[in-house]
Amino acid sequence: MIYTIGGIKGGSGKTTIATNLAVLLASKKRDILLVDADDQESATDFTAFRNQTLDGILDYTAVKITGSDLNGQIRRLADKYDDIIIDVGGRDTVSQRSALTVSHVALFPFAARSFDIWTLNKVNALLNEVLPFNPTLLSVTFINKADSRGNYKDDAAELLKSSDKLVFLNTPLGNRIAFANAAAEGLGVIELKPADEKAVLEFKELVKGIEKSLKSRKLKV
Ligand SMILES: Nc1ncnc2c1ncn2[C@@H]1O[C@H](COP(=O)(O)OP(=O)(O)OP(=O)(O)O)[C@@H](O)[C@H]1O
Ligand SMILES: [Mg+2]
């Protein structure tokens, strides 16, 4: 399965989700390629920390690929891995567009804040342009860094549900420091000790939701 973690707004949690997905799927003994398609290279930095933490025994492969030929590179790599996870930058880039044309699933996390949610129209417009090149792309959205208090989250959810391009998953990730703490050590949230059980459960529920959507599209996970 080829996943792109995308969006138009910086800081929505793309790299956090991409790296945690890589760690979770690798823990299920899947052969994973994590592709850093962002010049900020956060996924690459994460992998370097992880390599140190794991004493040089990495459990997934990571490469950096950017540019308009990303789709061609990914097509060449697709048969060699069980899953490819592409982490793109927080803007509408050539790399993101190229990644979306070869992905089976696109994940669009949104932080539940106005400035973030206002970029929904831009994500819809981006998908309008990409879908003719990849009509079977499954585009999924969910809330990240959800605040447990206030109506913000519900308002944001209503807006996300209104998009006819996106499948809304009601499996938000809370605003949990465990994600940052784990990343700082090159770990996924499922590996952090002491564990933040809520963060682990939320992340697993999100992945289950994605897998369910893929299955309902008859895409083999
Ligand atoms: N669910 C969460 N709870 C708490 N902090 C989070 C959560 N998700 C992400 N963060 C934090 O938010 C910040 C931005 O996350 P991240 O780097 O994953 O976003 P991004 O979308 O990849 O950003 P960019 O657009 O710059 O690539 C990081 O400090 C990260 O630790
Ligand atoms: Mg990032």
Automatic annotation (TrEMBL):
Entry superkingdom: Bacteria
Which residue intervals define the domain CobQ/CobB/MinD/ParA nucleotide binding in the entry?
4-187
Q: What is this protein called?
A: Chromosome partitioning protein ParA
